[in-house]
Amino acid sequence: MNQPTLYKKDPRGSWYVRKMIDGKRKAWCTGTTNQKEAMGLAKGWIKSLVAGKNDVLRKAGRRREVPTIGEAISAFLASGLRKCQQSTATDYVHDLRSLMREGGELTDQDSLDELTPGLVQAFYNHRLAGKDAMAKASAAVTANKIYRNARSIFGKRGIKKGVFGGLELPLELLAEFRSQPFEDEVEATYELPSTIVMGKIMGDAARIRDEEPDVYVAFLLTLALGIRRGEATWLKWENLSMEDGQMVAIIQPTWQHLTKNKKGRRVPVHPSAIQEIRNISENGCYLVPGSDNNRKDMVWRKLGAWFKSHGWDRHGKAHEMRKFFGAQVATQLGLYAAQKYLGHSSPVITNKYYADLVDIKQPALALPGTIAIEGGSQ
């Protein structure tokens, strides 16, 4: 076999390899910046590609031409026999295309025969290569989600019900595509900031309020409401309402953002916290002030840097404040109330991630010293 030709899209990025088969150019990312290692991986990829092609030819026999991936996608999206909703089907297709692109630079014009175990492995290699243990564990969760959604398109029940109409699918190959193992995931763990760290953050809140008010608002929304970053980004003043004498934030799916379980919920808001936010951003449409880019990205980077400066250097720092809020609700009001406030789809999820945190001795509702709490609890 001739030496594969390696190339790079980015001088500092991973090596890629190309191969012409039946007049079509196939490309694959080796997932490594080491040229020697990339050459070995490239040889293995080409060998499996050729072997897979020969296997397809053997299996094809008298079967008519296999449909393209695009034809299968169109049939899936248009089918009235699907069990999932249109928004879910669209998510599945998006993830299938991500897997195709990252695993072998495939397009909708490629044949369904290209959805092979080798494609799945190449996708995982691309996603996980060059990462340390912690980053790899985090990337594995996302990669597994993408593969899980992609293979759901070709589920046995859907095929049996006729989701793909009259298309003649390569059933044996699709079964192999669906049967690949997931990457091992590390069990998610959460911890609360120490009293010392939390004291430093709270003590510095007044300065942040004056110097970086947008960061202060984002901080209060994650700490006092326990809402997710995306939910805080798009929360508008019109989403606040008085119900039975209690101010609540109505968290609901919008065209800009979907809640994680695509359902809405109501979260009680401490009046002192909302007054602090009102003093900063009442004249705007959204609670977090600034441009769309600031709300979606910059403010959260600054929030993370602020936490890190006080010794809280955890992955997803804003999300850890949500955990802090959830631990307090679970301890004081129970796991069922925490499930409702946090927007989990099931109490099982809340129990899985918060049961250990409930052992903490009655943490009081934490708000910065800049806020005067006038009795009551959230």
Features:
16 helices; 3-stranded antiparallel sheet; disordered C terminus; mainly alpha; hpI Integrase, Chain A; 378 residues; 2 domains
How many distinct beta strands? 6
**Percent of residues in beta strands:** 5-15%
Main β-sheet, spatial strand arrangement: 1-2-3
Work out the helix count. 16
Note the overall shape.
globular
| Alpha-carbon distance between the two ends | 69 Å
What is the count of structural domains?
2
What gyration radius follows from the Cα positions, in whole Å?
A: 25 Å
Biggest sheet character: 3 strands, antiparallel
Structural class, by secondary structure, is mainly alpha
Give the overall average pLDDT. 79
Helix percentage: 40-55%
Low-confidence stretches: 56-64, 360-365, 372-378
Return the string of H and E elements.
EEEHHHHHHHHHHHEEEHHHHH
Question: How is the topology of this model organized?
Answer:
Blueprint: E1 6-8, E2 15-21, E3 24-29, H1 35-60, H2 69-78, H3 86-104, H4 117-128, H5 133-152, H6 156-161, H7 171-178, H8 195-203, H9 205-211, H10 213-224, H11 229-233, E4 240-243, E5 246-251, E6 265-268, H12 271-281, H13 292-309, H14 317-333, H15 335-342, H16 347-354
Antiparallel strand pairs: 1-2, 2-3, 4-5, 5-6
